[in-house]
Every structure is written in C-alpha cells, then in structure tokens.
Amino acid sequence: MSEKLNENVILFPKTVEFYQYELTRMLETERYGEAIQMLSFLLTCHHQDRRIEEEWEALLQWLQTMFPEEVFAFGEEGEEDLTETELLRQHLSIKTQSDSGYAEKLLGMLEHPQSLENQLLALDQLAFIEHPDINAKLSEWLSASEQHPLIQYKVLQTLKLRGVTGPIQLEKHGERIIVQIEETPKSFDDFPLPIHDIMERFEEISQTQQPALFYFAQETWNEFLAFIYGTAQYHQMLREEWDSVDVWAAALHLVLLEKVFHSGGKEEIMELYGITNDLMFQWEQAYRVMLQFAVEIFSQRPIE
Predict the structure, then answer these.
(1) What is the pLDDT of residues 171-224, one digit of tens each?
(2) Could you tell me which of 227, 218, 252 has the C-alpha nearest to residue 12?
(3) What is the number of alpha carbons within 13 Å of residue 143 lying toward its C-beta?
(4) Which segments of the chain does DSSP mark as H helices, in order?
(5) Measured between alpha carbons, how far apart are the two ends of the chain, in Å?
(6) Which residues contact 286 (CB under 8 A, 6 or more apart)?
(7) Helices 193-209 and 266-273, interaxial angle, to 10°?
(8) Interatomic CA distance for residues 149 and 126, integer angstroms
(9) Residues near 300 by beta carbon (within 8 Å), at least 6 away in sequence
(10) What is the C-alpha separation between 232 and 240, in angstroms, rounded?
(11) What is the pLDDT of residue 72?
C-alpha cells in the first residue's frame, strides 16, 4: 500500500463509526459528491481495520464509476492535498452560496434538535460558515438555558474557532459558571498538564491489565472533560496534588469496567492505584462524578 498523505491522522473505532454514519446519510440523501470527497480523505488516514478500508475503496470506486460528474464537483487537480478542514470550508462555501438560509437551518438544528449527533454535526459546520449572526446567536443560545454538557462544550469550541473571545455565563449541572471562550481547549492536547497526568497514569495501569481498555478510554476521557469543563469539579481536578492523579485514574478505570465491560472489582482497582484510606474521601467524590457522567452519556449511545 502506498504511503498515506495523512498517516498521522488516526481514526479510532468510534471515529470510524461516526464517518460510517455520515456516509450512510450522504448516500441516502444522494449527496454523492460529498461522499466521494469524504471517502477520498478517509483513505489517506490511518486506522486498524483493513476490512473497513476495503469497503471504503470499493464504495469510492463504485461512486466514481456511477457518478463521474461528481468527481470534479469540488475542484480538480490538487484536491487530494487539502486538509479535512480545508475540504469542509470549501464545501460549506459552495453550500451557503447555493442556499442563503443554510446557516439559519443549522442554527435551527440546535434549537429544535432531533438528536445529539445532529447538534454536533451542525456545530461542526457553523464553525466555518461566514455569517454575521452566528456568533451572537450561539452565545445567546448557550447562555439562555442549560443544554447537554457535550453540546455546551462544543459551542464553546465553535465560538473559539470563530475568533470569539471574552467571558460567557452558562448553566451546567445546576451550577452557574463563567468561562473564558478563548481558554477553551480545542483538543485534548490543549488541556492543562494535570489532565494529561491522569490519562498517563491510567494508561500505565490499564496496559498491564486490560490493554484494549485504553483505546476506548481515550474518547471516554475526552467526553468526561467536556462534561465537567468549567465546573467546580474541573477546577478542583486542576488544583489537586499528585495523589489525586491516582484517584481520578482509578475512578475512570472502575467506571469503564462496570459500565462498558460489565465487570471490575473495586478492591482490585483500589490496590492497583494505591488508593489508601487517606484518599477515600477524594475517591468517593471522583467516582460519584464519573458515575454521573457514565449514566448520562453512556445511556444515550450504544456501547459495543
């Protein structure tokens, strides 16, 4: 196989599921040009499932054969060198030129959502659309009432990508919080060091016990950070000492075993991470928050 242009872009299983869902939606709505564009990008990325890659190659070949006019719909030479963000910007520019009300439709998907996934997809696009009302409407909608915590965090990221700065108030888990939009992490790498220490500790323990668990834990940890971002628990996590790294890593480990793999043992996890009686109060707090997250988030999506 030839070297992939985006070999450093790794598609984890949940990301592959997301793109599979998107491809299905595109085919169902006869958006063949967009499907060709997405498949062309996906096949330049790295992932571990050769079967999926063969399916994508076959689908792309079929689409290019059946709909040759769509192959050049988004530009001709040099298209394969564009990044995913550039491809999205290009597509949205064409979309908004042909549909002047497209931005309003996306904002409507936030106000009258059919699903959490639809809201996330709308925000992915709103981040790159040129429209004078988007910033104000997103800010007003976020501050008006409590929304799903993952959507709240995604709106903050969207506003940051759009260049918005300054404080914004929002309701989260019954707590009124103020966050600085420009401080919102764009990715996991942008979170403060204590956050990385927790995941590194989890990786250290899990890879000797359940190696497969770490790959699922990465996405779960990212969602948990979005779930608590800006709250008192989040700031407490940043302030705590090294012992708290073990506390949070152990809480994540146990909750994953319980809610995803339907197994686990509290005593074994406590011993693995060295959770002593002196840390029990911190442990109970961390576990309670992690469990609240798991109940709310895992119940809304199938876990394989």
Answers:
(1) 999 899 999 999 999 888 899 988 999 999 999 998 877 777 777 788 889 899
(2) 218
(3) 13
(4) 13-28, 32-42, 50-66, 68-71, 84-98, 102-111, 116-126, 134-144, 149-161, 193-209, 211-228, 232-239, 243-259, 266-273, 280-298
(5) 30
(6) 244, 247, 248, 250, 251
(7) 120
(8) 18
(9) 116
(10) 12
(11) 53
> Amino acid letter at 139?
S
d(CA 67, CA 79): 18
Instruction: List the one residue out of 87, 94, 121 whose CA is nearest residue 18.
Output: 121
Domain boundaries, the chain: 6-95, 102-183, 188-298
Tell me what pLDDT residue 2 has.
41
Burial of 24 (0-12, 13-18, 19+ CB in 10 A): exposed
């050769």: which residue's tokens?
A: 50
Query: For the whole model, what pTM was predicted?
Result: 0.71
Q: Provide the residue type at 291 as one letter.
A: L
- pLDDT of residue 46 exceeding 50, the answer is yes
Burial of 201 (0-12, 13-18, 19+ CB in 10 A): buried
Rounded to 5°, angle at Cα 282 from 279 and 284: 105
Q: Nearest to residue 88, comparing CAs of 128, 56, 48? A: 128
Specify the residue for token string 């985006």: 6
With cut-offs at 50, 70 and 90, classify the pLDDT of residue 76: very low
- Averaged pLDDT, 31-39: 84
Which CATH number, 3.90.470, 3.20.20, 3.30.1790, 3.30.110, labels domain 102-183? 3.30.1790
Strand 45-46 versus strand 167-172 pairing type: unpaired
**Whole-angstrom Cα distance, residue 291 to residue 287?**
6
| Separation CA 258–CA 290 (nearest Å) | 12
- Residue 171's DSSP bridge partners are 176
Give the model confidence (pLDDT) of 136-145 as tens digits: 999 999 999 9
